[in-house]
Amino acid sequence: MRKAKPKKRYILPDPKFNDTLVTKFVNCLMVDGKKSIAYKIFYDAVAKVEDKTGENGLELWKKALNNITPAVEVKSRRVGGATFQVPMEVRPERKTSLGIKWMITYSRKRGEKTMMDRLAGEIMAASKGEGAAVKKKDDTHRMAEANKAFSHFRF
Fold this sequence. Notes:
single chain; mainly alpha; Ribosomal Protein S7
């Protein structure tokens, strides 16, 4: 390595729940630097989940995020001219970032009218262990399981 590793940036907790994970989520949800709008979408979605289910919205969101985060993934590795999909365990920071990205991506693809409704729907679906984001995680795990014969190529 030629240069020094960049310092880890620490993010401040959000104003309402005092949680850094919420801030990470809102930062990924934010479009064009409109952070206050992103916070409004997130808080409204959590409130809507609370109204519909009667449970704590933040806890349900954390449970949904937990259901989405992958444990293993496949990475391409070239060995002697052939490319193998090698299953590897996912680092903790990458786990959460993948879960957040998948939840937001599949929320945006849903059919409801506003982003708040879409996010609330995806949170409720993921907390039950269904929905597109959970399917993505299952597909990732299935792919790693199918290629576990190549796990000796780990680097």
